[in-house]
Amino acid sequence: MKNFDFQCKTRLIFGENSVKELKNMISGNYKNILLHYGGGSIKKYGLYNQVIQILGKENVNVFELSGVEPNPKLSLVKEGIKISRENNIDLILAVGGGSVIDSAKAIGIGAKYEEDVWDFFTGKAEPKESLPVGVILTIPATGSETSTGSVITNEDGLYKRSLRSNEMRPVFAIMDPKLTLTLPDKQTFAGIMDMLSHIFERYFTNTPNVDFIDHMSEGAMKSIIKNAYALKKDPQNYNARSEIMLAGTIAHNGVLGIGREEDWASHKIGHEIGALYGETHGVTLAIVFPAWMKYVYKVDIDRFIRFATKVFDVSAEGKNKNEIVLEGIGKFEDFLHRIGLPTSFIEGNLPTDKFELMADKATEEGPIGSFKKLFKEDVANIYKLAL
Amino acid sequence: MKNFDFQCKTRLIFGENSVKELKNMISGNYKNILLHYGGGSIKKYGLYNQVIQILGKENVNVFELSGVEPNPKLSLVKEGIKISRENNIDLILAVGGGSVIDSAKAIGIGAKYEEDVWDFFTGKAEPKESLPVGVILTIPATGSETSTGSVITNEDGLYKRSLRSNEMRPVFAIMDPKLTLTLPDKQTFAGIMDMLSHIFERYFTNTPNVDFIDHMSEGAMKSIIKNAYALKKDPQNYNARSEIMLAGTIAHNGVLGIGREEDWASHKIGHEIGALYGETHGVTLAIVFPAWMKYVYKVDIDRFIRFATKVFDVSAEGKNKNEIVLEGIGKFEDFLHRIGLPTSFIEGNLPTDKFELMADKATEEGPIGSFKKLFKEDVANIYKLAL
Asked: Ranges for the Alcohol dehydrogenase iron-type/glycerol dehydrogenase GldA domain (chains A, B) (predicted)?
């Protein structure tokens, strides 16, 4: 186990009708609130009205910035920073999924920084403080509601870059599983792939002696898979929605990464697909991960055997190591297919002619990943494996 | 799953030589520090000198209060409150195990309360604020380093009472597994029983649909058992010490209890043994838990089957439900014996003539527990089962 320094300050308010707790989170604490959201879905299902009603009863000024899209854009972040500065915003209230929260986080650190917020995403500067960000979560997936991360796309060159900072953890996250009952299948299951990937990026490590967190991660993965099948059978299953919503948070609050080197190559490899074709993040991960696993497993075949046997219940009997691992990856692909996700570019109806360009962009700041360090050629090979 | 509101603010600084990070925790943040510890062990192994040296280089005033014993006493807490008030203490630095931390927490809330601190433990008042408590942990067991809990014994009547409050979570916890290499076996393994019990008290619940946390709890229990055996074989195994130290924290930071009714009857039943005979907390739990399990399992036999099969790998084949459960409890008792813990009063060399008195005290505020509500007669029966 590696030494670590961990703190997750976010307060979780979880359960049916928990949106009404917004009142207690706000009351007496904030004065000028920037309400940040995406498109019409929060209006369509009444959440927008409910939030406005709660805020209306508090002595606060509400400013609005909507229009966050999947793969949230730097230009909107800059608009949010401008509004925040001009109106002394003291809370950014993100109502939505990961894109909205990531956008709110970037606004939060940008508003407290005099230079260009993109500096943080290129590594030119480190966030020292942020405006508080509060969350009402509508899509369980990215874990952004408690995580340190934000992923923003700079339209000028289609760069999708991620940033991590403890300063960006939201102060509270309100999570009502009922809000997720209306999610379209694609978002539900892409979200599930996203949360699984957050565990994968930590679970596949070369750091030895991380048994306790390994065990907890395996339990988490098994439960996510079990509840994903329950939702495939019945998207209205409130209990499965609850488990999945909680899982998305725990998968990415950082606990499952303590004491170990994390990887994150697959996220970068997937981000280039998202940046180029606007594909949903979780879908890009479903395409990338099986290929990544096949490409890297020999680095530590025993870890992949553990994954195959403990998470996908592969029996080791009468099989050699490669067979066990490949059966595990096969079962993972089967799981993805059964929940309706593609595991290749072709299944995902995506162009297959830009692999070199994407590999170039993914590695332009140097090789990526840590389980196996990947250079441009490696990344291109992984795209080809995912053809 | 039940609705929940969860926040754990404690910053974990974990790993070899992490004590030197104390400097960064203190520097510029605090002025008058109350150093709180137990007896000689932190002096014997050099930790005391190291702490004094670090504090000596900071611009702080250090006050000392030592003498915390197992089952920490209200009288010492009151002395700490007096010192804190007289010297404008702004950080209580607890260096030790659960007793020292619990005592520090009680001082922290007591110093901010004008009436008798015991009011909090009898439910007459609720803590509204606390002096910050920092921790350097030397014994992995109670999880008090991040938990909301404190257990204090009022010598006037030998009442041992516990309190939970978010206000009592420490601000930081420094955890160096190397500090635990010198622990005597009894403390090591009683500590391991203690952390297992913190999972049990949450895992055995009647709240339905808590699959995700169940899975994570089962992983946690399996890893604790595995690493307990590793430490029985070689107490100098640094990696197993690390896993166990981390496990003790996660077992009781509250995450494994979110969304469910918790039980805590066994703790109360064990507390009376501790209050009367001064026995180590973890040892009392080793005596109580197998008996409690046998007494209550029929309330939800399927949950105990899950426990037996997933945590102790009991094969269900060809057995009826009772047999599966009892084999699981048997394996748990076998585990306790193998790590040197008693599972009965007689094995523990404890008197067996005060069961009625203890049952009376354990239930004097009403029936205890939630998995099965236990009245005085039930508690007496459990003591008899543990004879």
From this structure: 10-177
| Per-residue pLDDT at B71 | 84
Strand partners, A153: A73, A160
CA dihedral B126, B130, B135, B139 (to 10 degrees): -20
Residue in B with minimal Cα distance to A6: B12
Smallest Cα distance from A209 to chain B, Å:
6
Q: B172 and B22 in contact (C-beta within 8 Å)?
A: no
| Cα-based angle B49, B53, B55 (whole degrees, multiple of 5) | 120
Helix (H, G, I), strand (E, B) or coil at B148: coil
CA dist B220 and B294 (Å) reads 22
Chains A, B: CB contacts under 8 A, how many?
133
3-state secondary structure of A144: coil
Which segments of chain B have a pLDDT < 70?
Answer: 158
Which residue in the block uniquely carries the two structure tokens 């795209």? A383
Q: Which two tokens stand for residue B146?
A: 């991040």
pLDDT for the residue numbered B159 = 77
B112-151 per-residue burial string, b: 16 or more CB within 10 A, e: under 16: bbeeebbebbeeeeebeebbebbbbbbbbbbbbbbbbbbb
Least CB-CB distance to B8: which of A8, A218, A223? Answer: A8
Please spell the DSSP secondary structure of B251-292, one letter per residue: TTSSGGGTTS----HHHHHHHHHHHHH---HHHHHHHHHHHH
pLDDT for the residue B157: 74
pLDDT of residue A169: 98
Q: Do residues B221 and B260 touch, judged by C-beta distance below 8 A?
A: no
A212 and B246: CB-CB below 8 Å? yes
Average pLDDT, chain A: 96
- From the list B21, B211, B247, the residue facing A212 with the nearest CB is B247
Asked whether A94 and A103 are in contact (CB, 8 A), the reply is: yes
Task: State the pairing for strand pair A149-154/A159-164.
Answer: antiparallel
Contact by Cβ (8 Å): B105, B150: yes
- In this predicted structure, the answer to whether residue A163 has a pLDDT above a threshold of 90 is yes
DSSP B11: E
* Residues of chain A with C-beta less than 8 angstroms from the C-beta of B246: 1, 212-213, 258-259
Retrieve residue A251's tokens. Answer: 């998968």
The pLDDT value given to residue B40: 78
Q: Which residues of A211-222 are buried (b: 16+ CB within 10 A; e: fewer)?
A: bbbbbbbbbbbb
**Total number of residues shown for chain A:** 387
Structural domains in chain A, CATH included, are 11-179 (3.40.50.1970), 185-385 (1.20.1090.10)
* Cα angle, residue B20 at apex, residues B19 and B24 outer, rounded to 5°: 110
Torsion over CA: B139, B140, B145, B151 (sign): negative
- Do the beta carbons of residue A201 and residue A262 sit within 8 Å? yes
pLDDT tens-digit readout, A89-130: 999 999 999 999 999 999 999 999 999 999 999 999 999 999
pLDDT tens-place string over residues A180-195? 999 999 999 999 999 9
Q: Write down the ipTM of this complex.
A: 0.96
Q: Which residue in chain B is spatially nearest to A24 when comparing CA positions? A: B5
Torsion of CA A49, A52, A54, A57, to 10 degrees: -130
Q: Contacts of residue B242 in chain A, CB cutoff 8 Å?
A: 1, 209, 259
**pLDDT recorded at residue A159:** 77
- Gyration radius of chain B over CA positions: 20
- Nearest chain A Cα distance for residue B8, angstroms: 6
Strand partners, B36: B65, B94
Nearest by CB: A12 against B7, B18, B250: B7
CA distance B130 to chain A (A): 18
Report pLDDT for B215. 98
**DSSP-based helix, strand, coil % in chain A, nearest 5:** 50, 15, 35
